Amino acid sequence: MAPITDEQVEAVRALVATIPAGRVATYGDIAAAAGLSSPRIVGWIMRTDSSDLPWHRVITASGKPAPHLATRQLERLRAEGVLATDGRVPLADVRHAF
Asked: Tell me, which GO biological process terms does this entry list (predicted)?
């Protein structure tokens, strides 16, 4: 992976900060909106620099949270009215458009 720039980090952070309560976005949605070549870049940025963001509103393209965060992430989403079925968020109903 190419080096990630401060501008890319700030673009991802700004996009994640705009996801409203009760909505979600995928790593791919954010990558596309930020002009990044891969959702993996978003994943790396989220893993290293997102503690002060609504990180729980970012999920995989399958509608599932990251396995190591699943319980916490689904609890936070449920508190915002986003209900998962079999651990999967209904993207068609709650996907945020940038």
From this structure: DNA repair; methylation
Tokens at residue 74, please? 């689904």
Distance CA 85, CA 90 (A): 8
Q: What is the pLDDT of residues 25-79, one digit of tens each?
A: 999 999 999 999 999 999 999 999 888 999 999 999 999 998 888 999 999 999 9
Distance of CA 53 to CAs 49, 85, 88, 93, Å? Answer: 9, 25, 21, 22
Let me know if residue 12 belongs to a domain.
yes
User: What CATH number does the domain containing 61 carry?
Assistant: 1.10.10.10
What is the dihedral sign for C-alpha 8, 13, 16, 20?
A: negative
For residue 66, give the 3-state DSSP assignment: coil
User: 64 is written with which tokens?
Assistant: 């599932």
Cβ(10)–Cβ(34) below 8 Å: no
